[in-house]
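From the methods appendix. Each design record in this collection lists the tokenized structure first, followed by the designed amino acid sequence. Records were kept in a plain field format so they could be parsed without special tools. The example shown here is representative of the layout used throughout.

RECORD:
FOLD TOKENS (293 positions):
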């Protein structure tokens, strides 16, 4: 479990560093150099390794509803909105799950992310009528990225309110399909997922810092074979599902998801490839018929 530093201990540490730097200017230069080096590593190396064709971008930078801060975790990365108390997008890569991979014990509680400003906690959802819905899924992340990945998937910055029939039925089937079916079909699949907000703003009765989404999206993108054209598929699932619907019912285009979220995905693709890929609705390569079995 990740230990959260207290504000007092952080203040004490910063005050001590300030005093040292005041007495030893050379130390200040060293700290600044390490800081710039760490930032360059984060932006140029660590984050790109977890992103496919660049980080998502807001279509309208003036719209505060699409503002986010990027948080990097073990095995996945996300854009978190402190204003909405939700991750706006979460991205991770899946490979085929080995049959003999042991399942880790599921944590009993979710943890407040020390990096969050709004301090959303496990108890924020208490008696709200909504489940704590994983965006980066516990099963896939824990199997592919171990205990550290699982611990990060239980941070509240990876969680969003989902109705029980969605979270425990249809969404769970989609999470199972992506690692048991899609990843085995292609070898490696990139996943981008998150909530969709539309209409009147509604927040949890148990914590006004958490906005309730109207729907959720998942996008999958991969190469059928190296050097061949990319294939992608999108799903847009409303909160109001009964949970028993076929997954194929919710297939949509990436263009539609971008219009619903106000975010631009895979912006580093060349314009012609991006336009064709994001406009297409082609479930055939994904063999969705097998999921009904």
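DESIGN:
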């Amino acid at each position: 479990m990740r230990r959260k530093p207290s504000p007092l201990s952080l203040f004490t540490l910063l005050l001590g560093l300030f005093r040292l730097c005041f007495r030893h200017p050379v130390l200040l230069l060293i700290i600044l150099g390490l800081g710039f080096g760490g930032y360059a590593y984060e932006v140029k190396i660590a984050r790109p390794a977890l992103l496919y064709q660049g980080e998502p971008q807001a279509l309208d930078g003036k719209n505060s509803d699409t503002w986010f801060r990027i948080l990097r975790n073990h095995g996945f990365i996300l854009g978190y909105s402190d204003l909405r108390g939700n991750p706006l997008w979460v991205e991770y890569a899946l490979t085929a799950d080995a049959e003999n991979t042991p399942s880790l014990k599921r944590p009993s509680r979710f943890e407040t992310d020390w990096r969050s400003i709004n301090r959303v906690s496990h108890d924020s959802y208490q008696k709200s009528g909504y489940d704590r819905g994983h965006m980066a899924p516990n099963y896939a992340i824990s199997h592919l990225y171990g205990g550290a990945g699982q611990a990060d998937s239980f941070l509240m910055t990876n969680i969003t309110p989902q109705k029980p029939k969605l979270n425990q039925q249809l969404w769970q089937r989609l999470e199972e399909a992506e690692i048991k079916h899609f990843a085995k079909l292609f070898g490696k699949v990139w996943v981008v997922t998150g909530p969709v907000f539309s209409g009147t703003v509604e927040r949890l009765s148990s914590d006004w810092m958490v906005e309730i989404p109207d729907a959720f999206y998942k996008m999958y993108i991969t190469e059928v074979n190296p050097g061949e054209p990319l294939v992608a598929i999108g799903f847009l699932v409303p909160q109001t599902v009964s949970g028993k619907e076929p997954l194929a019912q919710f297939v949509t285009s990436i263009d539609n998801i971008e219009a619903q979220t106000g975010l631009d995905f895979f912006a580093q693709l060349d314009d012609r490839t991006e336009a064709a890929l994001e406009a297409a609705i082609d479930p055939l390569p994904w063999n969705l018929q097998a999921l009904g079995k």
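APPENDIX NOTE: Helices lie at 7-23, 25-49, 138-153, 164-186, 254-261, 271-279.
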